[in-house]
Design goal:
50% of the residues lie in helices and 15% in strands. By secondary structure, it is of the alpha/beta class. The protein has one domain: Rossmann fold (3-Layer(aba) Sandwich), CATH 3.40.50. A hairpin with a 6-residue loop joins β3 and β4. α2 packs across α4. The relative contact order is 0.21. Bound molecules: 2'-deoxycytidine-5'-monophosphate (DC).
Length: 221
């Protein structure tokens, strides 16, 4: 089988990873893999308080889950058990559930296997929290996007407003900060840039500027 090519984009909640990953994947004509959606879909399917279950109950439930990926660029479709993952997972509440299950080694081990198996079959732009550090440590192109909490909450606010789901900006700021804290401080695979990642502070950059920096990184390396 031909070698696959992996580009990793990591970073905190609301920094614009998905937008950039889709755009870059379109440019490279490969699928993008939203690993946050995998954690969200697992949390959604297991349900509230599943993060308090014991390991063997979690293991049994996870053993039945199967992810599939098709399409390229923004038309990439990630499915769980033959059903495309939809917008039901896109709330800040499910984001927090995802962050909760993401602290559990049994969940991370299961998703690591699923993510690496997709990476063996497809070239990918893979975005998440630990793509460059844990899942694809040998990826030739690694990026870490960052921005202040205030700016990320502002972007999320505008995104939700555009989608017809207005939210309270101060509340978003608080939720993002809480999720960041948990993601950065967990014992297993905490959010941090890989030593060989290109770190881009996007606080005062627009989308076109961030995309240009990513493209330059991919082309130069
Ligand atoms: O990227 P996102 O906001 O959709 O991710 C939801 C949560 O899933 C995030 O707060 C932490 C977890 N996550 C993770 O631990 N590792 C990843 N590679 C992706 C997401």
């Amino acid at each position: 089988m031909a070698e696959t090519r992996i580009v990793t984009i990591d970073g905190p909640a609301g920094v614009g990873k998905s937008t950039m990953a889709k755009q870059l994947a379109r440019e490279l004509e490969i699928p993008y893999l939203d690993t946050g959606a995998m954690f969200r879909a697992v949390a959604w399917k297991l349900g509230q308080d599943s993060w308090e279950w014991n390991e063997s109950r979690l293991e049994r439930a996870l053993a039945g889950f199967e992810f599939a990926l098709s399409g390229t660029g923004e038309d990439s479709v990630l499915s769980l058990d033959d059903t495309p993952i939809g917008d039901e997972i896109r709330t800040e509440q499910v984001g927090m559930w995802a962050s909760n299950v993401a602290t559990l080694p049994v969940v991370r081990t299961f998703l690591k296997k699923a993510q690496q198996s997709l990476g063996e079959r497809f070239s990918l732009v893979a975005e998440g929290r630990d793509m460059g550090t844990v899942i694809f440590p040998d990826a030739p192109h690694k990026f870490f996007l960052d921005a202040s909490v205030k700016e990320r909450a502002r972007r999320r606010f505008l995104q939700l407003k555009e989608a017809g789901r207005p939210a309270d900006e101060a509340e978003l700021r608080e939720q993002i900060a809480r999720r960041d804290h948990q993601d950065r401080n967990r014992a297993v695979a905490p959010l941090r840039p890989a030593d060989d990642a290109v770190v881009i502070d996007t606080t005062s950059l627009n989308k076109a500027q961030v995309f240009e920096a990513l493209l330059k990184g991919v082309r130069d390396a």
